[in-house]
Automatic annotation (TrEMBL):
Protein name from the UniProt record: PadR family transcriptional regulator
Chain coiled-coil ranges: none
Membrane-spanning segments: none
Residue ranges constituting the Transcription regulator PadR N-terminal domain according to the UniProt record: 14-78
Pfam (any one): PadR
InterPro entries: Metal_resp_DNA-bind_regulator, Tscrpt_reg_PadR_N, WH-like_DNA-bd_sf, WH_DNA-bd_sf
Organism: Sellimonas caecigallum
């Protein structure tokens, strides 16, 4: 997949992944990788930035498999931001698809 395409939708996919349930970092890497190929070096800086921008809150939860894990919880601001990104994505996708359809007539 084109790296620029990935970069453009990564935030939206991360926010959407946490919308229904809190997740920890590696769990998010696994979830996002179902859609686009990413690694921890891509996800963790994004999570830090989104947390600094108050789209996520974090908390620690004990793990039976080692040290406590940092979980990410979507804030009200994060929900609004996610909604805005999805609306922009849908509009963008609609315009591109219309353009491509018109060119293929």
């Amino acid at each position: 997949m084109n790296p620029q395409f990935k970069k453009g939708v990564l935030e939206m996919i991360v926010l959407e992944s946490v919308r229904n349930r809190d997740m920890y970092g590696y769990e998010l890497v696994t979830e996002v990788s179902k859609v686009i190929d990413v690694n921890e070096g891509t996800i963790y800086p994004l999570l830090k930035r989104l947390t600094n921008e108050h789209y996520f809150e974090t908390y620690l939860r004990e793990s039976s498999e080692g040290p406590p894990r940092k979980y990410y919880h979507l804030t009200a601001a994060g929900i609004l931001y996610r909604d805005r990104l999805v609306a922009e994505w849908e509009e963008f996708q609609k315009r591109v698809n219309l353009f491509l359809k018109e060119r293929n007539v």
